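INFO batch 0412 | record 1 of 1 | parsing
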Amino acid sequence: MKEKLQEYITQKLGKKPDNIDSVLEAFKPIKTKKNHVLVEVGEVCRNCFFIVNGCLKITTYNLNGDESTTNLAFEKEWRTAMNSFINQQPSNERIVAVEKSELLAISRQQFQYFSQNLNGFQQIYQQLLEESYTKSIERVQTLMTMDALDRLKWLLSDHPFIFTRLSNRLIASYLGISEATLSRLKAKL
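INFO prediction complete | emitting tokens
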């Protein structure tokens, strides 16, 4: 599994870093079953996850206890409950492996050490933060500026593979619509 992370790091940096072995050693492999909870609401998030295979969903809950999918992540992406991970405070997000997944987890302590002491890792961390911010802005903009059909078209053009891997219920939650509305909209395409 770690060779996938090495490929990712080498690609992002444009070269294989000298200290790659010590970085890879800090990552712990995790194999999950479908619906395995990695971070629960109220827990402090202690790890950042690199997805080798599988899918993670990040959810929040409203005051009525209704779940909303705020983020989906697939192979060669990083995910964590960012606010909890950075500030070491209880998470208001839940991270679940939607599929049987293979992940590499790095602890906050190791992550911070590498970020402060290895130039290449600092660059990876900055890219991770930038990607997270960009995806968050894109997500907010799609929810605020697009109607349900346009959001569906956006998802189809951006991530067409999602429709063969995830349930309609999960896709609908991610799009902020009901499952019935998703079925109706799919029929229009």
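INFO post-check: The longest strand covers residues 47-53.
INFO record closed
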